[in-house]
Amino acid sequence: MKASVSAVALTLGRWLLASLFFAGFLQKLIDPSAAQALLASWYLPGVLVWPAMVFNGLAAFMLVTGIWVAQVSFALALYCMFTSIFHLIPSDPWQMSIFVKNWAIAGGLLVLAGHAWERRRC
Q1: Which of 12, 66, 70, 88 is the most buried (most CB within 10 A)?
Q2: What span, in angstroms and rounded, lies between the C-alpha atoms of 48 and 57?
Q3: For residue 44, how many C-alpha atoms fall within 13 Å in the half-sphere facing its CB?
């Protein structure tokens, strides 16, 4: 059976998005100190890195395998929007770049969620 271009694009898009969250999972697993320092700078407990790590890893797995794509994409979009707050430092161009990228990724995830919900209704 021949795969359609849209099916290939959706699969590749899911995998590319998943790779970002898998990398976040690995970073938090291997060296959680950077994420913990960021949390501490906002007066949040460093232990929050662990649920974030599990969420990143599980969500990446679910995107790759196609499990609950709509719900996972929507949850990841919210995660990107929320975590962008940590990078809202107007005096730091690098952090502002990350802030904007988080919102762009959230947009892509919302498109994916919308597409997945539409496919379920058909």
Answers
A1: 70
A2: 15
A3: 14
What is this structure's pTM? 0.91
The amino acid occupying position 62 is M
Q: Which tokens belong to 76? A: 């990841």
Q: By the 8 A CB rule, do 52 and 94 touch?
A: no
Q: Supply 41's token pair.
A: 């700078």
Convert the pLDDT of each residue in 5-56 to its tens digit.
888 999 999 999 999 999 999 999 999 999 999 999 999 999 999 999 999 9
Provide the residue count of the chain: 122
Query: Which of 98, 94, 86 has the alpha carbon at shortest distance from 37?
Result: 86
